[in-house]
Amino acid sequence: MSTFITSDLHLGHSNIAGPNTSIWKEGYRGFESVEQMDDEIINNINRFVQPEDTLYVVGDFAMGGHTRIPDYRRRINSQEVHIILGNHDAHIRKYADLFASVSESKTIFVNKQGIYLHHYACRVWEGSHKGFLHAYGHSHGSIEHSPYGKSMDVGIDNAFKIFGAYRPFQAEEFMYLMHKRKIEFPDHHSSETNVR
Questions:
Q1: Can you give the residue range of the structural domain that contains 105?
Q2: 0.85 exceeded by the pTM?
Q3: Are 104 and 58 within 8 A, CB to CB?
Q4: Residue 65's domain is classified under what CATH number?
Q5: Are 84 and 65 in contact (CB under 8 A)?
Q6: pLDDT in tens, 31-48
C-alpha cells in the first residue's frame, strides 16, 4: 500500500482545460476539451494509484458542475481518497460520504516523516521547525521558482512541469524531492531552541 498526494485537479473546469475551452485568458492546460482533460487526469491517477493505495487531494478536486463529483470519485481507483478543502471545493461537504475524510488541513506520517497538507502555501506549519514537510496546491506551480523551506506545490500542474504528465506524487517521491531543502526558521523557533 502506497500513499499519493496531488492537488488542483479542477475536474470539469473549462477555463483551465485549454485555449479552445477557456473564456478567460488562454487556459493553463493544452487540452481540446474538458472531457479530454478529465479523462487524462483520472487515467493518470489510476495508472499510479491502486485500489489499496491512499490518495490525498490537497484542494480543488472539481469545478464546473458539482453534480459530477460522485462520477469523478467513482472513476478513481483508490478506495481511500481524502480531501483537503481548497478555494473551489464549496460543494465537497455535500458529498463527504464519498471520501475517507474532508478537512481544512491534515498532518500525515509516511515512514515516520510528518507531512502537513494545506491548500495554501504556508511560511510556518505544524512541525515545520522539526522538519515536517508541507504539501500545498493553489498556485499551479507558479511560485516554485522560489522554493520556501521544506514545502512544495504538489498540484498536477507542477507535476506536469517536473515529470511532463498530469499525475499525482507518490509520497516517497515528494519526500525525496524535499530532502535537500533546508528548514526555514522565520519565527521564534530556531535550530538552537528547537521548541517542541
A1: 3-178
A2: yes
A3: no
A4: 3.60.21.10
A5: no
A6: 999 999 999 999 999 999
